[in-house]
């Protein structure tokens, strides 16, 4: 637990590979009265199901909402375990996942083999369109940015002041850049810096590139 009702499920500090099953993204799990909120869903159906089980164990309730921060499959493909109605993303990300998301499957199956069995990316049906969302009495500030990819969603948990920055923030490691626009990314980091969030940001940590862009 890294904050009040907030857990970090840490990914491996390594590239996507068979020995880690692609579980390299950091996932945030946040308790609310309506059930826990996940920020990102991991790489596969199997991982998404494990998250669902963990969420139930930690909070006693099934997952109420899953926010996807960006298109990369180590963050998004685990949404296969959840009903599309509770999976949320910005309109830009929904359009990109609809167009390009299925194309990532071949590469993920090639890298991960059996880990990916049954995984089928779900297109989010909950559209993030306002500056904040309230789930079970807990307020989340929505920060649609870009730079690491064309559509990056950072989320501020107002209750703890914790910023969940997806792959916009890499700590002690080389950022992954297959879909990056570096000048836009710098502007987004300035925006995040200006938030004055209280708790440490949850982003990507480690020393090697983590995100599979293709
Ligand atoms: Zn990424």
From TrEMBL:
This protein's superkingdom? Eukaryota
Where's the Metallo-beta-lactamase domain?
Answer: 24-207
Transmembrane domains' residue ranges: none
Q: Which Pfam families match?
A: Lactamase_B
Q: What SMART domains does UniProt report for this protein, alphabetically?
A: Lactamase_B
What PANTHER family would the database entry show?
A: ACYL-COENZYME A THIOESTERASE MBLAC2, METALLO-BETA-LACTAMASE DOMAIN-CONTAINING
Q: What is this protein called?
A: Metallo-beta-lactamase domain-containing protein
